[in-house]
Amino acid sequence: MPIPERLNPSFASALPPAPVQFDPMEEARQRLIVALDVPSAAAAIDLVNELEPSCHWFKVGLELFVAAGPAVLEPLVERGHSIFLDLKFHDIPNTVAGAVRSAAGLGVRMINVHASGGPAMLAAAKTALEGVPDPPQLLAVTVLTSMDQAQVNAAGVDRTPGEQVELLARMCLEAGIRGFVCSPQEVARLRAITGPEGVLVIPGIRPAGGDIGDQRRIATPAEALRQGASYLVVGRPITQAADPQAAAERILEEMAAALTD
Asked: I want to staple 151 with a disulfide (CB 3.0 to 4.6 A). Which of 63, 147, 169, 202 is the partner?
């Protein structure tokens, strides 16, 4: 499933691109997002310095953003990296619309909201990006990958995680949102209802035999891509490895093999 060209960090011209031979390793690099889930800007920059020969996309989430603020994004954007700002906005529609507009001004390429905020909030988030030049991709978070059936039921939801993901995704589609964050187990289900234009960003990625940590609904990189994932988000298997660069290369090689298939 090719990524939308506007999200490719090398897309900088309206001129038609020259024909190029498909390079599965480069395609993998354009589809791997490394999660900078670290407690300081210095730690984030150290990781980026080590990984940027291989990795183009980085995710900045709550831990790093709260610790370092918007300033942490500036050097990453200036160095040409594409940033997924993973703050999962979830509030009343007016507040979320304002947050989306502010996030769009930070130079990031993806932002997200919680789908469970409801139709009015989703519509406000979508409307907030109208008229923004080269807006970031808006994603809706469906059901967190840490939530299994017991966790979903404890939250008062009587559906399976997969059923809840599909219900939320259909609600988002009605609001005009075609980008989603879901677990690997729902990729095929969402790809079927979004079609090829849907942007599916998938956390919960663990190499075969890796420690799953607090994730529950997981898959290997190859499995997720074969099901129709657009992007894979990988954090601890890379960032907590003894050699993060080597760990990233192993994941990229697995992704490239799946893309070749």
From this structure: 147
Triad 206, 63, 123: Cα angle to 5°: 85
The pLDDT score that the predictor gives to residue 206 is: 78
Buried b (16+ CB within 10 A) or exposed e, 209-221: ebeeeebbbbbbb
110-169 pLDDT, tens digit each: 999 999 999 999 999 999 999 999 999 999 999 988 888 999 999 999 999 999 999 999
Q: pLDDT band at 10, cuts 50/70/90?
A: very low
pTM of the model: 0.88
Superfamily for domain range 25-260 = Aldolase class I (3.20.20.70)
Which residue do the tokens 């730690």 mark? 43
């291989």: which residue's tokens?
54
Residues above pLDDT 70, as percent of the chain: 88
Confidence of residue 207 (pLDDT cuts 50, 70, 90): confident
Question: Could you tell me which of 205, 218, 214, 216 has the C-alpha nearest to residue 247?
Answer: 205
First to last CA, the chain: 12
Smallest CA-to-CA distance from 100 within 12, 165, 92 is with: 92
Neighbours of 105 (CB within 10 A): 10
Give the active site residue among 88, 114, 206, 216: 88
Q: Is 88 known to be catalytic?
A: yes
List residues bridging with 179 in a β-sheet.
Answer: 199
Q: Residue holding tokens 């480069």?
A: 26
Report the C-alpha gap between 118 and 93 in whole angstroms: 9
Between CA 57 and CA 54 the distance in angstroms is 10
